[in-house]
Specification:
3% helix; seven-stranded antiparallel beta sheet; mainly beta
Length: 324
């Protein structure tokens, strides 16, 4: 194993009895390939020196859907998992209109008067308080075993002018797995920011990832907090943006991951207003006239039925490899 020489010494490869190895591992020693103490993103090399860790696929991957939920106007719902998994992304399928909140649930967080347990992750949604209920709706959440470097970062509350943009970035060296928002009113854009991508309010740096939000144009300002889910880059990681899609009022659009990859999160850029659906597409699921093939993953969006079409819109999908 890689054994530390002295309190501030380097690590050297050394042999111990099996009984002694257990004690050494408890005190910070490790095998080649294990995380190197104090160096994020590094592991013990063959000679016990620190080396950059190779990307690994997401393990324990699953997409979960809530039971049918009857949202009152401005009502809340969620899907959560208890145990050894974290959330990478999520979304909503609302029958009565857009969402004012679509955000990750974290341990010990409180939403609508309910406090989640200290080992519970998930996704929470609030129906926009617009005079419409959303009976028979669903919340979607994507889960996996915690990847290296996993963290959820949030912006402060930010004031958005009508149709204004804002966003929040991952820490340096990390990529975005998913994101969301907590707002007073609907949004027209909720999408990943990628290296070099240019938005009206900001251009991302050469290695910078994050999440971007735009307030829906409705003659009202908005107060929004941006949530960004970040981690070290998993194996097979890529962020895809659809070709421009001409979405009629209430129409569905979608975009798929490459064959063999799964979706961790995704989002939308709608030209004509907010979304009533923004969810992971899963094998053999059907959305309007979109049907996913066996083994196919991606992201699905529906333009909210509000009397406005959304020509030139885009669907975003964040894809990665998964463990066998």
């Amino acid at each position: 194993i890689c054994h530390k020489k002295g309190k501030k010494g380097t690590y050297v490869l050394k042999s111990f009895t099996q009984k002694a190895i257990s004690a050494h591992l408890k005190h910070g020693d490790g095998y080649p390939g294990d995380p190197y103490p104090g160096l994020d993103g590094s592991v013990f090399g063959a000679d016990c020196s620190p080396v950059v860790a190779s990307p690994v696929p997401l393990c324990g991957y699953e997409v979960r859907t809530s039971e049918a939920l009857n949202f009152l106007d401005g009502g809340w719902g969620w899907e959560a998992v208890q145990g050894a998994k974290i959330v990478t992304g999520g979304g909503f399928e609302l029958t009565g209109g857009p969402a004012a909140v679509s955000a990750p649930v974290t341990p010990n967080s409180t939403w609508a008067g309910y406090t989640f347990r200290n080992y519970e992750y998930g996704w929470v949604v609030q129906d926009s308080p617009d005079g419409n209920t959303s009976y028979g709706s669903h919340v979607f959440a994507v889960f996996s075993v915690m990847p290296s470097g996993y963290e959820i970062v949030t912006s402060p509350e930010m004031a958005f002018g009508d149709g204004g943009y804002g966003g929040w970035s991952c820490p340096e060296g990390k990529v975005v797995l998913g994101g969301g928002y907590v707002a007073d009113a609907p949004v027209a854009v909720s999408a990943p920011g990628t290296p070099g991508s240019a938005w009206p309010h900001y251009e991302f740096g050469a290695d910078e990832y994050g999440w971007v939000i735009r307030d829906a144009e409705d003659d009202e300002s908005n107060t929004i907090t941006v949530w960004t889910i970040c981690a070290d880059m998993p194996a097979g990681y890529e962020v895809l943006v659809s070709d421009p899609q001409e979405l009629d009022d209430g129409a569905y659009g979608g975009w798929s991951c490459p064959v063999g990859k799964v979706v961790t999160g995704g989002g939308f850029e709608l030209a004509g207003g907010p979304a009533s659906v923004s969810v992971p597409g899963t094998p053999e699921s059907v959305w309007g006239d979109l049907t996913f093939l066996p083994g196919e993953y991606g992201w699905v969006v529906r333009d909210a039925e509000d009397g406005f079409s959304s020509p030139g819109s885009a669907v975003h999908a964040i894809c990665t490899d998964r463990c066998p």
